Amino acid sequence: MLLLALAGVGVVAYANFTPVWRSRGRLFSDVKDLPETKVALVFGTTDRVNGRENLYFRYRIDAAVRVWKSGKIKTIIVSGDNRTQYYNEPEKMKQALTERGIPAGRIVCDFAGLSTLDSVVRAKEIFGTDSILVISQRFQNERAVYLAQAHGIEAYGFNARDVETRGGARTKIREVGARVKMWLDVNFLKTRPTHMGEKEELPN
C-alpha cells in the first residue's frame, strides 16, 4: 500500500515538473524578447465570475494587446467555450480586443476550445499552423507548450499577469490535477479534441 502511495506521489510530481522543464527558454514576460510568430493563441475564460470582473480574462487581453502592438504577431486565434448563446468566450475576447484597437479581420474565433489540449491541437489541425505563441498565465502556458510539442507544434508563450487572490490560489491547486491529466492524455490516453470539423483558413 505504501509503495502504491509513493508511486502515486511520484507520478503527480513528475507530471507537474515535466511542463516546467519542457517550456524552459520558451516563455517570456517581456515583449522585446519574443520571437516573431505569425499566429498567437489566446486561451479563453469567462469575463465575469459571480458578477465581478475576472482578472484572468482582463490580464490575458492586456497581454494579447501588448504582443500585438509589438508587431511580433499577425493573427490572433481566440479559443474557448461556446456552450450556449449566452456564454461565448471567443466572442467576448474578440470584442475586448477590437475595443483595444486590434482589427477584427486579424482575429479568428475558435468556438470549440473546450480545453487547453483542444485549443492547441485545433490550432494545427483545423487552422493549419505549425507554430504558435500561446498567451495566458504562466501555469497554463507551461502546460500548453508541453501539449504543443507533443503534437508536433513549435510553441512559445507570453505570460500574462497572474492573479494573486483566493481564487488564484484555488486555480493553482486545480492545476496540479490538470497537469496529471495532461500527462495521461499525451502518454497513455492519446486524447483527441472533443470537436474537430472542417478546416479553416487563417488571414494571410
Automatic annotation (TrEMBL):
Pfam families: DUF218. CDD domains: YdcF-like. GO terms for cellular component: plasma membrane. This is YdcF family protein. PANTHER family: INNER MEMBRANE PROTEIN, PROBABLE PERMEASE (PTHR30336), INTEGRAL MEMBRANE PROTEIN (PTHR30336:SF6). Residues 39-155 form the DUF218 domain. It comes from Luteolibacter yonseiensis. InterPro entries: Cell_Envelope_Assoc, DUF218.
